[in-house]
Design goal:
The chain has seven helices and 13 strands. It has about 300 residues and is an alpha+beta fold. Among the domains are: about 110 residues, Phosphorylase Kinase, domain 1 (2-Layer Sandwich); about 110 residues, Transferase(Phosphotransferase) domain 1 (Transferase(Phosphotransferase), domain 1), CATH 1.10.510.10. The strands form four sheets. The protein has a six-stranded antiparallel beta sheet with strand order 1-2-3-4-6-5, covered by helices on one side. Strands 7-9-10 form a three-stranded antiparallel beta sheet. Strand 9 and strand 10 form a beta hairpin. The longest helix is centred in the middle third of the chain and has 20 residues. The protein is globular.
Amino acid sequence: MPPKSKADGVKKSRAPAKRKLAEEFPPGEVLTDNAKKKWKLGSAAGQGGFGLLYLANEDSSGSVGVDAPYVIKVEPSDNGPLFSELKFYMRAAKPDLIGAWMNSRKMDYLGVPKYWGSGFHEKGSKRDRFMVMDRFGVDLQKKFEGNGKKFPRKLVLQLGLRLLDILEYIHDHEYVHADIKASNLLLSYTNPNQVYLVDYGLAYRYSPEGVPKEYKEDPKRCHDGTIEFTSIDAHKGTPKRKKVEEKGQSADETKGAPAKKRRAPQKKKEVNGAKKMASPAKRPAKKEAQASSEPAVKKSRGRPKKNS
């Protein structure tokens, strides 16, 4: 028998299934969502991952113009990213939910895209999933680079406040975004003073029905996200963060280490009506110090002499 090679007998790990590319549709194609509402596609507006973006409008006799207020994202139904994104939009981005949140906080706008509809479109043997959302303008990454990689301090502070509003809303609805970066922050198409956080393909529901999910590392999800901004936990395959101890160390850093006792606060003593801090630790007094504080007593060796 010929000698076995080293590769023989070693099980080959299965490569992840390759995602399919979306099929291009001609302008004028009509899609019907799950609510039986019809949408007409315009020209292609871009590509994201394995999906295509089209300008769109509600179905009418006219064509979809360049100023269309909506875009439709289309992906093959077997692909996962749009399915994950849809779960977030359907649970947390319906117009009435966002409107109620804004009214309760008296906000002029909230930078979370609204969900307008979704469904499947079959053409021949191919089946695609689609989602309808608002149209947006340029992203902050392009603005940043076009401005010499500098933003005024006032603009940075305003962006930070708006982003905090967005994250508060997302977290309050049991989700984390897991892919925050400048290229996912888009300006409104109609109002360049408004910024929106988009792309929820990696959004993670961390606390379904108010019950936090267990921390669990998943090799299949390792390194998901954008490498420059991916957290340590995301590199391990989980978007959920481990519990943080009092001193800011993660649970795995303190595992097996003895717990450190905290020093009790020092008590104040009153001496002659004045407050004085007690010494942190009392040391035993030296013999010389004791001798100096006590009256001197001569010690003699042997028996004492009798008085005559």
